[in-house]
Amino acid sequence: MKIAVEGCMHGDLDNVYATLLYLQEVEKTKIDLLLCCGDFQAVRNEKDLESLNVKPKYRSMNSFWKYYSGEKVAPFPTIFIGGNHEASNHLWELYYGGWAAPNIYFLGFAGVVKFGNIRIGGLSGIYKAHHYHLGHYEKLPYDESDIRSIYHVREYDVHKLMQVEGLIDVFLSHDWPLGITDHGNWKELVRHKPFLKQEIEERTLGSKPAAELLEKLKPTYWFSAHLHCKFAALVQHGEGGEVTKFLALDKCLPGRKFLQIFEIEAGAGPYEIQYDEEWLAITRNFNSSFPLTVRNANFGGVQLDIQECRQWIKNKLQIRGAKPFEFVRTVPCYNPTQSDPDDSFTGYCRNPQTEAFLQFLELPYLLDNKSEPREQTQSPFTLISRDSVDHDSDVDEIEELTAVHDTVTEEEAL
């Protein structure tokens, strides 16, 4: 099986797919799957841009809407996770995972699926310590704080991934596991990205929960993005233990290292995306603890032994099959021929895929839970010292500032 991996998509599906089709033709090969490590930007219409934490100069429709509308179809099965620049209102509809467009599957805020006999896991978002222990308190419409916190990794989602016992072949995260630079050529990294040096030396670069997942899951491959550069590392888990091959990739731009193709042993095809039995059991087991306010999840009522639940899932899958529920379009699609955007839809809607998924698992729908007043589910900054808040950095902005600084320095030298 040949799998292509892409770093930050930034909505540029047309160019990524065109590049892969060209590579297929030139190298006389067949790519079976595309994985994307976040900042996918599944923007369906102008309304979605309001939930996209992107500076105005970077905000545009790009090309995902063509695949959502059906104008185009992804030429490869595509699996992606979320980053820190996403149409978060859209991804929240698919919190548990689902088709963002035909042949384009969102892995969920955390998730595991199978592609053939390959298990692929992932964690969406980026790590920020001040939000990690909170619940998913954000409610639409997102305010200036919510639009940033919505994609911050939560302990609840990591805790579910920590329950996975079976082998994970490939794992995706947007930001890098903390300490991963110890296992690669970090000096070469700093030569290209000097602004990372201090964080590397202070051991603050990366995600602590991602590092914990790396240690626990020990996947064969781990792919990340976020920092807009290529960086490779080999992590050996104990003396003589398993080895994880780590690779971070850039964003889709000319001359940048944003794609990698690798081959992994798999059974005979054809391959398709399917639900993972163990992950469904974990999801069902922990859904009663789903935290929807600033309070963290309470795992006290969760059964530690999921074998009975797993057998129940297995029986259900044998009857229905393991293919995810079919894609359903839920909002009006962008129409470039219209001068004025379609404002007929303004609110949140339930995604029928998610409803069908939860009915299959016999779980209640909680994503639009309004039991808590808005005042109690708003930004928790009243609970946090403002001095402790580390605002999200934008790599594009940092790179621009670095470039300006370098230009000024060169001019001064002349």
Shape: globular
Beta-strand content bin = 5-15%
Q: Sheet bearing the most strands, described? A: 7 strands, mixed
- How many individual β-strands? 13
State the low-pLDDT regions, or none: 370-378, 381-391, 404-414
Please trace the helix and strand order, writing H or E for each element. Answer: EHEHHEHEEEEHHHEHHHEEEEEHHHHH
Radius of gyration: 21 Å
Helix tally equals: 15
Average pLDDT metric: 90
Enumerate the strands of the largest sheet in spatial order, edge to edge or round the barrel.
10-11-9-8-7-6-13
Distance between the termini: 54 Å
| SS content category | alpha/beta
What's the helical proportion of residues?
Answer: 25-40%
Explain the overall architecture:
This protein has 414 residues and is α/β, with parallel strands linked by helices. Helices cover 30% and strands 14% of the residues. The chain has 15 helices and 13 strands. The strands form two sheets. The protein has a seven-stranded mixed sheet with strand order 10-11-9-8-7-6-13. A six-stranded mixed sheet has the order 4-5-3-2-1-12. α11 (277-286) crosses α12 (307-320). The longest helix is centred in the last third of the chain and has 19 residues, at 395-413. The termini are far apart.
